[in-house]
Structures are given as C-alpha cells and as structure tokens.
Design a protein that fits this description.
The protein contains 1 helix and 11 strands; from the N terminus they run αβββββββββββ. With about 170 residues, it is mainly beta.
C-alpha cells in the first residue's frame, strides 16, 4: 500500500479511536474494553488514496493500557490509557512515518473527540483532531483533521469506516 506519511499515522489512530465504546461516559478501563479485538478500517485520504488497515488491540498484562498493533495495510503501534490525575484519556501512536499524541475527556453520547498533535516525516508538529462516532457495537466512522496555522480552522486529512471482525 502506498500511503502518505500522515495517513499511516492517522490510520493507526483511527483504528484505536474508532473501536472505543460509547456505551459508558464514565472514566475507567471498563468503558474502553470494547476496543479489544481485530478491526479493519476502510480509509479515504484527502490525496484520494483508499488504504484498508487491519489492527489488533489487546489489554496490557497489568490491565491499564490498550495496545494496538497494525497487522495489515501499514505498520505501527499505539497505546491508550487513563491519566487518573488529569481525568482524561491519552492516546499515542508511532510508526516509521510519524507519531501523534492526543487526549480526550471521553465520550459525549456516541462521539469521542481526541485533540493533540501529529508529526510526520518532513513536517512540523501540527494540531490534530480525531472525531469518532459509534454507529453500532461493530461499526464506527471517523474524521481526522489537521489544524491550520494559527488554529483558526480544520482541514480534513482522512475519513474512515471501521468494522470489528471475529
């Protein structure tokens, strides 16, 4: 698959964010266990590419982190955990093409919004926003956006639909 650097990082984040459950607005790992399993995301990038990315999310041995590894359509890892001091979720993603860090207070109804920065090869860190909507227990949609200089508006980086497999 030929993917621009941002799309690989965005795809990793979208697999992680799109699999989160909206059923509970309380903070705690129990509300995020829905993320466990294999997810396949059909991505539509702003450059017109349409990669399909499959990732597997597991629970860390101590039960405090959700660890995601891309198994097809890209490469990279990501990690989600609850920062109990700040009462917010933290999400990081890394690949050879870039990295990102985002935070979120959690779900508001069926939607979770992650805010942070993304750094891709040859680019400065940019504001990065991911908005995921839970369609059902096995399907989500996602919008990844980059902030413009000065932060006055957002530009679409990619959209995706993700489906949980068996």
């Amino acid at each position: 698959m030929i993917v621009r650097p941002l799309t690989t990082t965005a795809a990793l984040l979208l697999v992680l964010a799109t699999t989160a459950t909206a059923a509970s607005t309380s903070l705690g790992m129990g509300s995020m266990r829905f993320m466990l399993g294999t997810w396949t995301c059909s991505v539509k990038a702003v450059d017109g590419s349409t990669p399909q990315v499959t990732s597997v999310t597991t629970l860390s041995s101590d039960g405090t982190h959700l660890l995601t590894r891309t198994t097809a359509g890209g490469e990279g890892t990501s990690d989600v955990w609850l920062d109990n001091n700040k009462k917010e979720w933290v999400q990081t993603a890394n690949s050879s093409k870039g990295s990102s860090t985002q935070t979120s207070p959690g779900f508001n109804g069926p939607t979770i919004v992650w805010m942070g920065t993304v750094t891709a090869s040859g680019m400065p860190a940019l504001p990065y926003r991911t908005t995921m909507t839970k369609v059902s227990d096995t399907k989500t949609t996602q919008l990844d956006e980059l902030g413009t200089p000065g932060g006055s508006s957002w530009l679409t980086a990619d959209t995706a639909t993700c489906v949980k497999g068996g």
